[in-house]
Amino acid sequence: MSELKESTMTYAVIIAAAGQSRRFSNNTSNDTTLGQTEWFGDNAVKKPYVKLLGKPIWLYSTEKFARRMDVKQIILVVAPEDVSWFRDYFAVEIDKLLLMVISGGSERVDSVQKALNIVRNNIDYVVVHDAARPCVTDVQINEVFKSAKQHGAAILATPIVGTIKLIEDGIIKSTILRTGMWEAQTPQVFRRQILIDSYSKRNITDKIPTDDAELVEQAGFNVSIVPTDKSNLKITTQSDLKFAEAILANKK
């Protein structure tokens, strides 16, 4: 269930939707049904705008956050070339959900930093979520919010259960011990000042962090893990749409 009563803590949610979706748009498959993939808008050929059971992917999680009384600000970050189109095409949804739509940067961390710069000063916690994770549940959101309040920083994650191989030039070089290895998911929730401090220490000459938890770790903060399952999948290729459809249909 979503938060139905006022919380003493306030949250801003950053929905990351500025990626170029190259793996998604370039994905090939023997599944002939994938050729029927539809997008919202003539020029919208990116994951967040795909029709998933008749609704754009980005809207599923955004609506969940918007229903929460403790969420006071939602910032949706889209690619620079999509901003004008997005604001026009989804004007009804933007108005209804009180969204701020801004232009993203060249990397994910650049996009999040731009959004972080306009998070209101009265916000206690900042949430970062992938627009391409439409199957996140209210229970998962509640749990990661709770853990962040306790520890200052928390993310959803699932343990890696498969055998992991290190590959070079198509050849297995070694098998990696999977004990203690987890796959990070979103939402990732941070006390606002922790995220601000972490971004202030960011060195753009170093390796680019692949998620905000890595940046926070690099800044010296501890990040708590909230165990979950693989149903909170990130849509990466077109074949993932079928799995997402099944998950969402099963939750109705």
Report what the structure shows.
The protein has 252 residues and is α/β, with parallel strands linked by helices. It has a single domain (11-251), classed as Spore Coat Polysaccharide Biosynthesis Protein SpsA, Chain A. Helices cover 31% and strands 25% of the residues. It is built from nine helices and eleven strands. The strands form three sheets. Strands 5-4-1-6-10-7-11 form a seven-stranded mixed beta sheet, sandwiched between helices. A two-stranded antiparallel ribbon has the order 2-3. The chain is globular. Mean pLDDT is 88; it is low at 28-35.
Number of helices: 9
Distance between the termini: 14 Å
Query: Would you state the CATH class?
Result: Alpha Beta
CATH topology: Spore Coat Polysaccharide Biosynthesis Protein SpsA, Chain A
Question: Uncertain runs with pLDDT below 50, 5 residues or more?
Answer: 28-35
Task: Round the Cα radius of gyration to an integer and report it.
Answer: 18 Å
Q: What amount of the residues lies in strands?
A: 15-25%
In the residues, how many domains can be counted?
1
Question: How can the largest sheet be summarized?
Answer: 7 strands, mixed
Helix proportion range: 25-40%
Order of helices and strands: EHEEHEHHEHEHEEEEHHEH
Order of strands, widest sheet: 5-4-1-6-10-7-11
Known CATH architecture? Alpha-Beta Complex
Shape: globular
Q: What average pLDDT do the residues reach? A: 88
- Structural category is alpha/beta
| Total E-strand runs | 11
Classified in CATH, the superfamily is: Spore Coat Polysaccharide Biosynthesis Protein SpsA, Chain A
